[in-house]
Design a protein that fits this description.
The complex is a heterodimer of chains A (255) and B (280).
Chain A lengths: L3 E3 L15 H10 L9 H9 L5 H9 L2 H8 L26 E5 L2 E5 L6 E6 L7 H14 L17 H14 L3 H29 L3 H13 L3 H28 L1
Antiparallel strand pairs in A: 1-4, 2-3, 3-4
Chain B lengths: L5 E12 L6 E3 L4 E8 L2 E8 L5 E7 L4 E5 L7 E6 L5 E6 L7 H13 L35 H11 L2 H4 L9 H4 L2 H10 L21 H9 L1 H15 L4 H5 L11 H19 L5
Helix pairs in contact in B: 5-6
The chains are: A alpha+beta (255), B alpha+beta (280).
């Protein structure tokens, strides 16, 4: 492990106590350390309530928060089908583990809900990119510990919503008649808006029960007389995959 | 006693535990349980009514065994349980009518407790009849000597655990490989009239109106592909009989990938027939 445990970390650090909640927990571990965060009453109360608690207790309190659980679950697909308790191999269970990197009092910290303590990666230079360059170094080193070609990394940044700022600045520029700068901002605004449209699209897909669509697509294929051929093609794909996997296995045996 | 030592008899089949599991498989063979006293010992025998052979002969000491209904399986399944050992013998009632089940069971347990027990029979004052031959008790009542295929299937379902038993044989077709953009996109041009049938099934809160382009985006999306994958996995458990009824399909369509696809093909053909049945 790179970095050192800091059991005395005075910031917000909660343990992950539930499966499949690591992303939400990571977000909370980040939000809990943002000074003067403007948050609604529920989050404010949660953060205040857990003040001074140890990581394990914090984790338990977070888990028992109803509004948080509802928010977290609202983006899972509505299950007409529950595969729980059937002993089937789980398809994606915590396929990714999320970990937070953030600056705290001049040091770069790594908050991992599955580790006993916050991890300190030392101090950073305030000049230039500041803490970001130290974070980049640490993250790149970590990625380097995986086999070359491994692609299973996802980097997210928690930032202030730029939309209100852009809108306010745009209004100012337009009022001041600065058309050129205003035009630049309009482009930025459009980019932010289309991002949000994409997120709304994705979320509506996440919340939707697709069984009806699956069924009607298959019926449409059948009505068009194309279901049989699609089936045969699918069989071929499976055969190919199986023989590829087999030959890979054989190749490995030879080495 | 009419017969030498037969205390009671009734039609019953046997069922056997599948080794190493909690599954019990019924045997369709027509048989009968006979309680007999021979040489002062109580015997519980199982006789095959087709071959007339006694295939099971258990000696029972007083209060050593009980004959109990299997509560986890609704239906007429019983187990002979021994207090002296782990032995379990499973049976199922084969008389078409269950009216006398309780009577038989009570009397069996009576004898198991005490060999000198005196059987009591409901309204009839006659001692138990011996049904030692298959054709012997042809009564006017529509009693069935055979277990109907339905009864057998029902029993199978009752006795065995849900996952695995009702499922169709594994399929090498994955729904994800059928519902690909490559297969669906050509429909937009070849059968544009089918596209509006898909719109009612799109998310109601889509931030844009439904269109072929949106459909294409949805089908290529990770959310949709993940949903297809889950449904595929669920279908393979064989347990979706109830769910597929909601799609207008027969229950059998929920037992696996192949049955599901076959049912879809039929559904499409019958719907297409309706589409072209315009009267004028």
């Amino acid at each position: 492990m790179s970095g050192n445990y800091d059991p005395e970390f005075p910031g917000f650090f909660a343990h992950q106590v539930v499966n499949n909640a690591c992303a939400t927990l990571a977000v909370l571990n980040a939000l809990g350390n943002i000074p003067a965060l403007k948050s609604g009453s529920q989050l404010t109360q949660l953060l205040e309530f857990t003040n001074g608690m140890d990581p394990q207790t914090r984790g338990l309190v977070i888990t028992s928060s109803d509004w948080l659980r509802e928010a977290h679950n609202s983006l899972s697909p509505p299950s007409a089908i529950s595969l729980d308790g059937l002993g089937l191999p789980k398809q994606t269970e915590d396929a990714y583990h999320f970990v937070v990197y953030l600056p705290f009092m001049g040091f770069l910290y790594e908050l991992d809900g599955l580790k006993p303590h916050a991890v300190s990666h030392g101090s950073y230079n305030e000049t230039g990119e500041g803490w970001l360059s130290r974070a980049r170094e640490v993250i790149e080193n970590r990625i380097a510990t995986y086999p070359p070609g491994a692609l299973d990394f996802s980097l997210l940044a928690l930032r202030e919503d730029p939309l209100p700022l852009i809108q306010a600045e745009l209004a100012e520029l337009q009022a001041a008649g600065k058309q050129a700068e205003a035009a630049d901002l309009v482009v930025k605004l459009e980019s932010e808006t289309s991002k949000r449209n994409r997120w709304n699209f994705e979320n509506s897909l996440r919340r939707h029960n697709h069984v009806g669509l699956v069924h009607s697509l298959l019926v449409a294929l059948a009505k068009a007389g194309k279901l049989e051929s699609a089936k045969e093609r699918a069989k071929g794909i499976m055969k190919e995959r199986v023989s590829k996997a087999k030959s890979k296995g054989e190749a490995m045996d030879e080495s | 006693m009419a017969d030498s030592g037969t205390l009671l008899a009734f039609k019953a089949g046997r069922a056997f535990r599948r080794e190493g599991t909690n599954f019990v498989d019924p045997s369709p063979a027509k048989g009968a349980i006979l309680l007999r006293r021979e040489d002062d010992l109580l015997h519980l025998m199982w006789k095959n009514r087709t071959s007339n052979e006694v295939e099971e002969d258990l000696i029972l000491f007083p209060s050593d065994a009980t004959f109990l209904k299997v509560s986890q399986a609704p239906g007429r399944v019983y187990v002979l349980k021994f207090s002296s050992s782990n032995q379990r013998h499973f049976f199922w009632m084969q008389d078409a009518s269950s009216v006398r089940d309780e009577e038989f069971v009570n009397n069996v347990n009576g004898f198991l407790m005490d060999p000198d027990y005196e059987a009591s029979w409901g309204s009839s004052s006659q001692p138990s009849t011996s049904t030692s031959t298959a054709g012997a008790s042809q009564s006017s009542a529509p009693s069935n000597f055979q277990a109907t295929p339905e009864q057998l299937a029902q029993l199978q379902q009752l006795l065995t655990s849900a996952v695995g038993s009702g499922a169709a044989p594994p399929s090498n077709v994955s729904l994800n490989n059928i519902l690909t953009p490559a297969n669906i996109t050509p429909l937009f041009t070849s059968h544009p009239d089918l596209i509006p049938t898909l719109f009612p099934h799109l998310p109601p809160d889509l931030p844009m109106p439904p269109s072929p382009e949106v459909l294409q985006r949805i089908i290529s999306s990770p959310q949709f592909r993940s949903a297809v994958s889950s449904f595929d996995q669920a279908l393979r458990t064989g347990l979706l009989g109830g769910l597929v009824r909601g799609l207008g399909l027969p229950e059998e369509a929920g037992t696996g990938i192949e049955p599901f696809l076959r049912a879809i093909q039929s559904q499409a053909e019958s719907e297409r027939g309706e589409d072209t049945m315009d009267t004028d």
